[in-house]
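Our working data are protein records whose layout never changes between entries. An example says more than a description, so a record of this kind follows.
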Amino acid sequence: MAQENCAHEAPQARFAQKVTGFRRMTPGLLRADHSAEVFAGLPAGVTLQGQLLAALKDAAPRLGISPRLVHAVDWLFRFTQPQDWQKGSRPIVWPSARMQRDALGLEASQAKAINRRLIELGLITMKDSPNGKRYGQRDLKGRIVEAYGFDLSPLAARYAEFRRLAEEGRAIRLAMGQLRRRATIARKAIRQILETAAEYGFTGEEWVNLRRDSEALGRALKEVERVDEMETGVGSLERRQREARERLEGLLGAVHKDPMGAENRPHYNTYKPTPDPEQDTVIAAKECSREGEGPGLSAPTTVPRHHRTDRGMVHGIAADELPRLAPQLKRYLRRASPTWPELHDAADWLRHDLGVSKSLWGEACVTMGRDLAAVALAIVSTKDPEHFTGSPGGYFHGMVAKARAGELYLERTVWALRRAAQPAGQHRAVRSGDRAPRDRAGA
């Protein structure tokens, strides 16, 4: 006994549409016809017809296929059955024109336009009956014995193409996301450079041009969709950042260079200028040398110009140890073994999260030195929010005040962080002689 191939709500009438005349032959229709003629079942590696639809949806943005067209194909898929996609059969469906219009919410002319577009894109083809009507029959096992209507077999032939385009699309989105993040970092760095230049009273046409050009370039990049154009624009923005930073460092007399490259790091102003630029690199450490910090964290009484390596010990703490003690620093670091200059930069990013103002951070760097200021800020980041009576920024302000008065002792806090980072079994192994020094005025 024959069965109608239709959705549950499909009418039982055998003939569903009037003759509309000869179909116009187009290149898309010819390609789709050829794909349908060589249909031999689902492609290798595909077990369910739904995989074809999923591949089409993934590739649709790359093919310029609108969501409305994808939805139309999705709707046609509802009428197919697994046996229609087997070798020797054809996935042909024959919903009526009225059913299609009602289901998709279309006028007659809109439905016809969508069908033509699907054919031109080579997603479907049409198997026309002698009288131009859509209809079909199934046997008792549900296999199609006769059908005229929408032929979906071109989708199987294009499965590999859909997968390739989807992968290309994902790679492009990933690349664009990375480039947009680089552009954001460069824009923020340029703004910080301009803020620092303004704070130090540096004026001139170069800073005006930098602001104007970087803002215009930033607006233009928001409209870019091609990777090559985005790379060019981001490279130009990073070049401006690099040149501006080098100019600012020259004006400030900075001697520490960012080992990760200026194009990937913003500039941070963390000390105050003096009439003698050669003294800028040691003034913070000299100020800090007047403050007693306790065993293990005290600053040297004399500060040679190069008193450590970038990865060496500072106040009894190694550069790669601080991120382990204060994990919030890690989000602003690009490697597991940072240098102290990189920790300074990371701490300057971290201060935003903690609500520490730029002026207070600069004051801390002058009072304690950049290294110990980074340590103190890292310690604040480890505190539970309920630990603060006011805010993290206010707590840090109190630490700076203690340091200025010579009453800041962080050794016990650092020792406690080290102990907390140890495996639980090692805590009991600490001998009485290894106890932390008494915290006279720590964090």
